[in-house]
Amino acid sequence: MLFNSIExxxxxxxxxxxxxxxxxxxxxxxxxACSYFFYMCWNPKYxxxxxxxxxxTYYCGLLxxxxxxxxxxxxxxxxxxxxxxxGFILNLGILFFFKYFNLFSRTLNSVFALLHIHVNVPFxxxxxxxxxxxxxxxxxxxxxxxxxxxxxxxxxxIRYALYVSFFPQLAQGPIxxxxxMLPQFSEEHVFxxxxxxxxxxxxxxxxxxxxxxxxxxxMIVDTVYGNWANCSGLQLLIATxxxxxxxxxxxxxxxxxxxxxxxxxxxTTLDNFNVPYLSKSVSEFWRxxxxxxxxxxxxxxxxPLGGNRKGKWIKYFNIMTVxxxxxxxxxxxxxxxxxxxxxxxxxxxxxxxxxxxTRTLQLLHIQKNSAVHNIFRVIFTFIxxxxxxxxxxxPSLVESVYILEKILIGFGTSAWRALPxxxxxxxxxxPVLLLLLxxxxxxxxxxxxxxxxxxxxxxxxxxxPYVRWTLYYAAVTAILVFGVYGPGYSxxxxxxxxF
Length: 499
Description:
- This protein is 72% helix and 0% strand.
- The protein is mostly helical.
- The model is unreliable at 487-491 (pLDDT under 50).
């Protein structure tokens, strides 16, 4: 069930109304049933995989908690390590089979072919369970937190299963930490009209980002990248910029809907995006982009590897490890791994060049925090991120290199003179172009307000009723009139659903 489907428009209000009407003691069980129904609308049999993953980590958590009562220190440590290793191996094994086995088979077959060894490793034609990468990281962070004694083991299976499967966060996150979400499932959530309005406003903005901006931008990207060999470098550059904002609008839009849906029912979730394209470095970009995933990798991979505590070169090794794993997490293809590696490499180069940059600024008498310098850094960082997005969007690693080559050297002054004709090959007409420009202005406005710590939602809710309702009706009308939706539009699927 997609957030922007007719089914969800019936499902969500029904769930909210019943949630506030039923007794408190039944709320968690009701939400758990609704979450599993939501998930089973994709593929009912894969709900069993979700349940197995939940059960494994639930009992791992209980065993970890009981191990703390063992007086023999050596036995206690051995039991805890065995328990957490079992939880990781079983859950990562499930993830590996569904997501990475075919990549492993393809790589192994290529190696055998190079060595002239006649072995054919089989492939499995299995459908990737929706959200498996997200809920796997969720359960792994839980048992790691219990192992570290950051949180106690959850003894209520219903509450823990709801944490894993909570439907607003199930398919695409945010990857909420157990210490943030589990206590909320023990709280009493009463009807609060102000919070409901705030949540609905955030959901409305998310629908605008997805249905209007991301979907129309996706048509440009699909047109150009689907026929990249016959497109000019300028067209590929435009399509790559469009992809940067398509992915942002799509995923940030989903996060807005997910966080807003939780707020309507009284749950608080940390923000997943914080104006990433105004970052002044690649490392800052990753503190603002997909924050829940970046935080997960920081807390459960980068820091355990040693972080920046063991010297500069170990730090660089840890950064590369984190971003190569991040690339692999996004997809079982080499171009995703290259995308992750580039993000890590840019951060390492940036750190190595920091003394040189500081010295250059001093020689040129440029203030480090001057507006001109900051604007230059934002533009330069955006260009670096665009380079990485080519590898993320292209069909393969080889095609990524060819596309990037066409963008970098495939056009000159003549290409810019041919810009009007080049726009005709993007698959959109002038009215759609004007719509996209207007939508981009709205997106930039909201991002600038957020960057300045101005909450537009609170500002709207302080206005008089006739002003608020005028804005509501205008927003809903714009989404219905200008949005892309309905049967036959593959662009209605949220992009991160595939991960």
